[in-house]
Q: What sequence folds into this?
């Protein structure tokens, strides 16, 4: 019998079934890899906001990961925004650097790429 808490057992089951790396699942949940590892190994119980983010990343309810934490919904997730906007370093006035880290439908991703290619300053 395992000495791991239920949340770690459930999280490991989801990790194994996902087919993704631990680093990828941590990124999807907005977690540092070390924190995700502590949850997987049962060293630390994820707080409510992190549990909600994990549930969202795996497409399950929070209680499917940690049945002892009740009343938590995915709306409680503490996720970083999937984009970052900075002042452009090399393009000159009127340009911003936009970084997007999100899973998008292919048609939307294609539109963003087309727009970025059309709007990007011409390189010589």
A:
């Amino acid at each position: 019998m395992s000495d791991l808490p239920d949340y770690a057992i459930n999280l490991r089951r989801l990790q194994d079934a996902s087919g993704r790396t631990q680093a990828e699942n941590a990124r999807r949940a907005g977690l540092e890899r070390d924190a995700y590892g502590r949850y997987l190994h049962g060293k630390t119980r994820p707080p409510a906001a992190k549990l909600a983010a994990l549930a969202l990343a795996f497409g399950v309810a929070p209680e499917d990961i940690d049945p002892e934490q009740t009343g938590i919904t995915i709306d409680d997730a503490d996720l970083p925004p999937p984009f970052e906007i900075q002042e452009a370093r090399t393009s000159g006035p009127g340009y911003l650097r936009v970084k997007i880290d999100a899973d998008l439908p292919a048609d939307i991703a294609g539109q963003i790429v087309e727009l970025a290619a059309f709007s990007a300053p011409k390189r010589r």
